Records
---
Amino acid sequence: MSASSPANIIIAYLGPPSSYTHQATVDSFRAPKYTLRDELSIRDVFDAVQSSSASFGVVPFENSSNGAVLHTLDLLIDREEAFPDIHICGEVFMDVQHCLLGYVSQSFSSDNKDLQSSGSSGSATPTSSIPFPKEPRSKPMTDLRHVKRIYSHPQAFGQCEAFLSTYLKGVERHEVSSTSKAATIVAEDRDKSGAEAAISSRLAADVHHLAVLAKGVQDVEDNTTRFLIIQRGPVCHDIQNLLPEKFQMTNGFRLKKKALIAFNIDHGTQGALANALLVFKKHSLNLTSINSRPSRIRPWHYIFLVEVEGEREFDDPDLLHLALQELDTVTEGNKWLGCWVDRFGVNAGQ
Amino acid sequence: MSASSPANIIIAYLGPPSSYTHQATVDSFRAPKYTLRDELSIRDVFDAVQSSSASFGVVPFENSSNGAVLHTLDLLIDREEAFPDIHICGEVFMDVQHCLLGYVSQSFSSDNKDLQSSGSSGSATPTSSIPFPKEPRSKPMTDLRHVKRIYSHPQAFGQCEAFLSTYLKGVERHEVSSTSKAATIVAEDRDKSGAEAAISSRLAADVHHLAVLAKGVQDVEDNTTRFLIIQRGPVCHDIQNLLPEKFQMTNGFRLKKKALIAFNIDHGTQGALANALLVFKKHSLNLTSINSRPSRIRPWHYIFLVEVEGEREFDDPDLLHLALQELDTVTEGNKWLGCWVDRFGVNAGQ
């Protein structure tokens, strides 16, 4: 059966299973219509879609606290031209609730008095560099003094600073490739001494039989990750029709739509970047974000990625064509990375 | 003796000793006039300068292949208002030559034939996702089959993909806080089995008594990191005079100057970002780069950091004042992060 047969639509996502990307994918693409397949890296998801071994791919794009996922930006820019046909066709927002996972130490678990006196008072310690530290949003459910090493993804560490600096100050951090990988490492801790803990998802605790030592350890309540759905080729109704209805681009509806465009400019021309951005303004495409990445052709030259939103422009190919034509005249090169229905404020499961 | 006494000017830099930041600092601030002090984190360098325990700080800002150092951007944005007085007053460019450091395995070292047959042919393997992989720029100086784990900073891993995917494909990677920390870990490998290796500086090999297993393992020849020098307070001649002459801001000279400005906008106003960038164009301040970071006040709202360059504008406080006044009218808030002499094309040691 081919990957694009309606009965067996394959969705590649950034694994391993129990990753946040997995959760976003499960919520968007329901069985039995879709078959989900985990991939080892974001690049592997791009590869699966480019080679048509999957119809769609799901990758993390941006976190509301920590910013863009640079690796995804680099793959979209595609300096090596390995993914010429990849286009974005949808987005999924998902609340991220980090947990501290590990083992409960028998020697400390009933000794809450000592927990207090050991400096873990539950309020972040002011220092000269952080005179008004953020208060952690949650408390540990058990003593954490046995924890000597924490594993997580760098983005997750960045999202849990208040909790870590209050309850796990000075504890060694090991950055690994994903939050689910972190849980795997801790689950493999053979003597179960409890010296190792992971910041990972609630789902990972079940999958790896780990104890939840603390819930909701992220700094801000509203910690949302945005995922992109990618497909092969630009908006193409043959493929679009395989998507769940909520992601399909339909003409005429007054839905807000978004697009991502990459371009580079002649850095020697004064005002070149402002000129490029003016094109979007002129064509009523509101600029909602901008990122820059090194071009890797010349040092200190950049490729810019801009996200724009609008209504009428996306429904009228002529209007869009005009805007892109004008962009050609003020950039050294540009690439259309796809457009999709704005899903902001709509959770994955809805 | 106070930190600002000319005979004992303290420079805080991101350590540990033998880090690339250390190298950039040594080359710029020569003994006996300056006393260098290593700090554990970029935040600690900011803290030292804000609290006046150091006159200047040196921190990494951007790499020519890998882009901005997000942690430095976040500290400059200073959402917590912990560093209200920090301003940039200089920049240093430094070539980064990564080395693979570790131990030479006695059992493999003379067995080059096997090295060839084990798939490490010296050319990167084409895959469907990378049909034309970058060729590694250098070859290992010894067999690497005994290497089972590599330690380095995530940025350094990102800069050495061709070498790693050719000669150390599938070897476990451990991301640590700095390249010098990576060398420290490998040096502590007690049985010297050679299973651990680090991507670090040539200087770190000497400091930690490690063998250089390969030199220049980074993907591109031109791999340069830009460091910022920070001081307390905006351009202030009392402090500026303590800087080495090459970094001092002097009026009248036809030196190109740069400045960094952070601002946020009303995301609901169409064209708000383009309007803000137009102000710089109007005042002949050429935009050379732009980065965005989450505001962390509302999700999907950003703080933008723009770098501008010009000549006349920086020498005439009135012209600059006009530009900033106009920026006030089109942004929700903005922050001047300092200006400095453009040092592009001038190496640290010169």
---
Amino acid sequence: MKIVVDAMGGDHGPVVTVPGAIEAVNDYNIEIILTGDQEKIQKELDKYSYSKERIKIIHCSEEISNEDKPVAAIRRKKDSSMVVGLNLVKTKEADAIISAGNTGALLAGGLFILGRIKGIDRPALAPVYPTTEGVAVLIDGGANADCRPRNFLEFGIMGDVYASKVIGIQNPNVCIVSIGVEEGKGNEITKESYKLCKEKARFNFGGNVEARDIPSGYADVIICDGFTGNVILKLTEGIASTIFGALKEEFTKNILRKLGAVILKSGLKNFKKRFDYTEYGGAPFLGVQGNLIKAHGSSNAKAIKNAIRQAKTFVENNVVEHIEMEIKELGEDGLD
Amino acid sequence: MKIVVDAMGGDHGPVVTVPGAIEAVNDYNIEIILTGDQEKIQKELDKYSYSKERIKIIHCSEEISNEDKPVAAIRRKKDSSMVVGLNLVKTKEADAIISAGNTGALLAGGLFILGRIKGIDRPALAPVYPTTEGVAVLIDGGANADCRPRNFLEFGIMGDVYASKVIGIQNPNVCIVSIGVEEGKGNEITKESYKLCKEKARFNFGGNVEARDIPSGYADVIICDGFTGNVILKLTEGIASTIFGALKEEFTKNILRKLGAVILKSGLKNFKKRFDYTEYGGAPFLGVQGNLIKAHGSSNAKAIKNAIRQAKTFVENNVVEHIEMEIKELGEDGLD
């Protein structure tokens, strides 16, 4: 199995992508292709001992930065680490790609270079959301700000495949984020989507989930438009960081409290770990013709390694084929 | 000043509304009218010593429950504690009303009985959102699931009046919740609303706020549709309760950790207090012709008292008149 790592992507570039790739090759039976600046990548590789047969560099003269306009960057920077990497997946020279680079560009590249799975109108980002029960899949995490009911049904199908085939949740409870659990509660789009899912879904459609019940793991797959998904993810991040900040402030106010905090150190560490995105790798962009994982821009080597592991699981479990099959089953209903 | 308390509203009814009203009368220079079942209210009143001149009961033979359909309940239950209370505000026999009852019914009652302020298309709920800086006003907290740009502008106007005149924030930073700070980021409705606010706002329009920056208090007034507002409020509630649960679990795992937690008790208490809704009273329904405060359904006596204090501040600061004036300034631009 060959996995492409966009070595230049993310806030830290080769400094984290290279050790992440090396760790992955050490632990898993895979080969890695690093796309990007040969010299910079080699400089990082030279810091470690690694299997030269299983890590290959493809030199690229360009790089897509976070400031680049997504569509223009994909069209013009043909020799960028991202575009070259996507083309390797397109031509089947590689089985999957992970990138921590410009999200908009990566999504545009997924759509234009890999293309959509037949029958999928809107591919979507599907990050995992940590819950007290484990994790849930949130879809769409931000690729499509405005959606129509058909898209919600597609999100349900793709989220269900991901949750069941990759994460291993049996018969996932797939729910739409809304402002009440009853069928009649919601805004226009969620109410219409509820009806459509109730009628057409082959997955286990559990109706609506209120945002209050997301953190406790009521739903295994959380369907929403990309605007709402982004609000949920970013707000969670903001609240977690605010709460950790407030705790730290309270726990360092005097010497006695500092002592208490020392006693609780391992408890606090466990607690923080539950909210640590690096544990979960990246977010797949589901619905395109290939395995594409978006890693967090601020990924460290461990997060890159976990994203590679995730890409491997996608390949092993034929996620693209399963989505194709599920959509085909629907297509005969004339939804296109 | 006379404030109506819907004595039957909320999960606990007179058991909390009566002591809440008594505490408010003891602390503030106001009179209270309790609407509801005379016998039940008197039974609670008899448990306390209170100023008989300043607390009056108006008996009502009906009650609106959480199971009642909002519009039907308001139309049919003419002698309910909620409808009678709203009519007292309508006829100016009282200056404000607070209720912890059926939210949908209270909003419908506000619209049908009190009526809208001229020029306001969509009155909105405006709860406060606790931040590390103090509080922000979130508007709309759930009254209007689907909105148009004009409504966002109205929310900005009303939120600005509330934040500046009642909460005392000078020149509040009024922002639209979106998925990026740039003008072009968002969904259709937020992008259009951005343009409209930029063009028409007399308040301090600060552009977009990302959900990640809400908890830190970047925005003083947070504009969004009622669907997004509900998601933000409920998710915050869910995350806070999950985090408190996880902390408790970690901190009681063994005897040493329990000791650590005892040392940190006051710190943990302060920390929890920051997220305690009872501190903040209720959410005003802004844009109707009268002062209407929705208290949380699970309010205790302290929350009821704080909602009464809040109602008093609304009356003292002529919130309705200020909104009327601000909307009038806009009306000449032909927005209606």
---
Amino acid sequence: MIELPSDPPPSTATAQTAPQPHIAAPVVTIVGVGLIGGSIGLGLKRAGWRGTILGVGRDPQCLQNARRRGAIDQAVPTLARAAAVSDLVVVCTPVDRIAANVAEALAHGPDHLAVTDAGSVKAAILRDLRLMGETAGPRSRNDASAPSRFVAAHPLAGSELAGVEHARDDLFLGRVCVLTPSPVTDPDALERVSAFWTTLGCRLVSLDPEEHDRVLALTSHLPHLIASALAGCITPRDQDFAAGAYRDLTRVAAADAGLWRAILQANRAALDRALDLFRARLDQLRAALDDHPSATRFEHLWNEAAQRRRDWTFDPPGQPD
Amino acid sequence: MIELPSDPPPSTATAQTAPQPHIAAPVVTIVGVGLIGGSIGLGLKRAGWRGTILGVGRDPQCLQNARRRGAIDQAVPTLARAAAVSDLVVVCTPVDRIAANVAEALAHGPDHLAVTDAGSVKAAILRDLRLMGETAGPRSRNDASAPSRFVAAHPLAGSELAGVEHARDDLFLGRVCVLTPSPVTDPDALERVSAFWTTLGCRLVSLDPEEHDRVLALTSHLPHLIASALAGCITPRDQDFAAGAYRDLTRVAAADAGLWRAILQANRAALDRALDLFRARLDQLRAALDDHPSATRFEHLWNEAAQRRRDWTFDPPGQPD
């Protein structure tokens, strides 16, 4: 039987000499210890954070690997049990399971528990949580707000590689982490969750959940769909004549189907709008090629995009992506 | 006045102790000394080839930079003059200038001159050369074949960065170089051109010109068009929320507008077919997302592409493309 900490070790947040801000959370539970969850555990260790990391997941083998890699200190069989002894829970499961995991953590955690997540969509998760609140009966809060101690987050880091074996302690260094707090968000939970992501090396940016989903549909979800469509057009034989452009355009096509199906479905409306923009731009470029041979219009469109890309700076100290 | 070699140095091809095959061409002219042409010059030096490299180009500053970087030994003011003293000419100009450069080199070169190119399209260049032959009057060959001493080539390496300052001596190492010889191709020219690209580290593959254009439309030209369309949809403000997927999907959008306008126009028919395939696949994926929540069809399509991408191997010893 796993022995859970009954008396959490003292917080390290009061250590004035610490080189960086550490979260005031002696016990953190990671739900879903794959690439993201595992990198969170390793990142906390790298940052010198000295609390206890509990891991919860459906696959015992994965949890064992996470412990062997040092991403978690202890595997706990149920989220309810882990949440009960935690100060902060970070939910790193696929986006279609996040709302249920958040609700479960809040239902079983202490009053001061703060909960965050790492999901690639935000509005759908918050909507599901509000619906759960409405249908949970008289014991739940009677407004339709999302839970006040849940601070939805999205660290903009990941990889086409899945699993704790690909976790990295520098995955979040220098990356933007979007938070989508609301007027009902508890200030203490917001502070604790902010410190948590900052400890991992993230730069925090607050956005409205719908604005997050609009932007990420363009910068991440649409690119993944495009990568898959492109890779799907090119046969193994034709791949022999592929080089750098193909390599880069299709890298994320190798990502997990289930994870991406859930993300794209959860952000369907914004994805459709992004897709319409993309198709229109593709049509414009194609039509501008007809303007033979000068194609001033084509070069104008191309240069506009080229200049944006050249002006973009992205150099997190960690590795791709 | 530039002093051109009147008595070419002895060929190094007879040196039995040479570590790799060297071309039997004491004087090589590079026409267009940018990223590709410059990398050819540096690559020949890296391979230990000891002939003379002449450079021809429209921009004197660029030729001076090429000489400073050691990519060429000498700049020559006109292609006619350089070709006259060359054993091999490699044309690295934009695809809409290649046919004219090839014809000019052949018109002014010695009988044994072999000519090759590095253009990203093949059928249009060969067609233009045949048309030039037909209209050149009674002194030209009377069949409608492309010139027999021109061996069209396409080394599958490049970069979104332009100019000799980005040239690399390892750009071609381990890369496929497609040759598109025809029944009229001179065997001696074919052998010399083959040895040339092999000296640079390429693996040679022969294809029909139309087959080359069909495959490259999918593996290179379509990805460039997609990259530009995607980058064009994302505003500078939204770019702040971009990470690895955006970085990779849009890298080649920063490529030169004129070069790519010419390539896409020259391969328009194959590009249109590739674009139709891509749109159809995108439509399939989008429609399969409706199949909420299981989306078995979506995951099947996604996994097919993901598996192809994971099975693809690409690890040239040189740097990214």
---
Amino acid sequence: MSATVSPLAPKHFADMPAIRGVAMATAAAGIKYKNRTDVLLMAFDRPASVAGVFTRSKCPSAPVDFCRKNLPHGVARGVVVNSGNANAFTGVKGRAATELTAQSAAAALGCAEHEIYLASTGVIGEPLDATKFAGVLGEMASTAKGDFWLEAAKAIMTTDTYPKVATRSAEIGGITVTINGIAKGAGMIAPDMATMLSFVVTDADIAPAALQQLLSEGVGPSFNSVTVDSDTSTSDTLMLFATGAAADDGQVRVNAADDPRLATFRAALNDLLKDLALQVVRDGEGARKMVAVTVKGAESHAAAKRIGLSIANSPLVKTAVAGEDANWGRVVMAVGKSGEAADRDRLAIWFGDVRVAVHGERDPDYSEAAATAVMQQEDISITVDIGLGSGEATVWTCDLTKEYVAINGDYRS
Amino acid sequence: MSATVSPLAPKHFADMPAIRGVAMATAAAGIKYKNRTDVLLMAFDRPASVAGVFTRSKCPSAPVDFCRKNLPHGVARGVVVNSGNANAFTGVKGRAATELTAQSAAAALGCAEHEIYLASTGVIGEPLDATKFAGVLGEMASTAKGDFWLEAAKAIMTTDTYPKVATRSAEIGGITVTINGIAKGAGMIAPDMATMLSFVVTDADIAPAALQQLLSEGVGPSFNSVTVDSDTSTSDTLMLFATGAAADDGQVRVNAADDPRLATFRAALNDLLKDLALQVVRDGEGARKMVAVTVKGAESHAAAKRIGLSIANSPLVKTAVAGEDANWGRVVMAVGKSGEAADRDRLAIWFGDVRVAVHGERDPDYSEAAATAVMQQEDISITVDIGLGSGEATVWTCDLTKEYVAINGDYRS
């Protein structure tokens, strides 16, 4: 948590309604930070359908292992999240910490341990002392409340400069349902996935398998299309819970993700995921500018995405953006290094609406002043037309500033 | 070229002997820089055997295309290198510039255009005005001299803070031969290859095919094992020329790379290539520390190298090094994101000689003070034992500092 809020932060937070079927509480356990909350409990009145997507790291954290193990059961009664310590690369001690936490949470909520989900974020490699918060979960369960989303988002922050919340509504078979989400993340952000934790809850009544498919599809153009620094966390966790409370209004349970009744729900969910993902990029460590990189004309959508990420992860592109330098030659470099098919003499590049290069060379009408004016904006779009096919993708990143170096040069100490 | 020399620069330059059969001249053509040389001509008395390795970028520069086209002819009479403009992404104008330069050089040296090799380094995307130096190549050819290596290295610098030279000697069939090399490069340095130009010349008499095989094998553990910023240039060029002058001493021409008479030559060449490659890393933009990353116990050598590069390219690892922070958790992260097989619970990690992690958790004898003492050194080694196989590789990188951001935020302007 930083004293200075990112200049790219939203001007105001979404007004987060309560979601029937879920209550939350936070506590200040002093895991790493002083004078702030660092533990979140989410409690579901009844077993909620659950879906999850996790880091692809080969060295995942103990909580990620724990969640993966529970997911096949398909139902959740509680979620415990702590910030300040990732409980990653902590060996036997790490597993013991997840077990202690799960036992305490299950006792507090009167449920089975496989109905508990866990996430930890913070420093890697230091043993997590779960006794610091396991003892207070009972009290947290008894004081949890529904109108607590912003506080929940605050408790899971690490180097974040602002809490990330979003809400949407949709209709399923004529019944209005709500989707709320929180997220944290600022550095160690790369697909797949962004280094972040995100928890999304809806009162819709949707079966676990359908929920999982919705989430797996939704993560591609959202959290898996943002990068701050190309570094993939050991802890990335995105979970979606459906409390099913809308069944009380007559919403008929949906069992299949391709059910046409899910059309507006799917759109609302995807929009919310993108909203949260972009909030993570806008809080990129040291970020001063947000960059949307769109690649079109690639051989395939996947190729377009890889080229886009090659541009978005390039330190030389990102430092040029920081310096407000319309250095499109570095975009050419990043296209060339992506490994995807490209024909230099068909490439065209735009900064904002200003075409800077076409047919493999500088645009005949190139205006340095016009390009620089684009770079001076806070939100910048870079568009590349590869000229070979119809593959298209957009990814988002931020600039690479001296502040990123400063933040990460002494984060642990 | 920077006013401040990298603190990692060699304490003194190698004493470079002349190499029989090659002469050099430089000129100040004002391509981009003021008050310094920016054009180099290398002239071979007789057709020299030639080998080359070039960028794998899908958007190579016009000179790279030109060299690739000439290489099958196998012989060189001249090399023209300019700094300040990469002649990359310059379309038809770029090809015209290479043709003009080659014509002028061929006329100056009295040889065919396919005996000329070209390289350009600097800004991408701006048309190169080759008329600025094409006219002086005749005079350069007439004043070229053999004892000019350090000056040659200076003329090809861009953001380099010092010229890079190296020399070695070897024996072929009892005859002593010499190998000299120069290189430039500081940023946009990544395999494959490092963004750099390097020209190596020997007086040995070796046939082109053998020379090519020696060079292709030598580039792997040298220039293709260093990274400054993961960004691959459009212009990377490494060339090896053999003037054959040692034939005058009785050296019998070698036609095959596996000829046992090449044993000491191969070792000397590989050592020289590594020397030059490490000089490039030590001049990494903004670098204050040099890092050797060794990965052992991987499933294969190739897997070890990919894991090593994942660590060496991680902005979070590199900023931690800049901050003298023994943040080994980020090394775990980088191993995990590499995509290669890893078993968290078998990993061991050393900073220098200090083992910081073993069996998937912090070393029981971990000493923060000892680890920090390693990080305060100028030269740092990071060793990771994956614990799965016998694959091993070492790659080299530098730290990521605020100066890197500053240098690249306003390089072009």
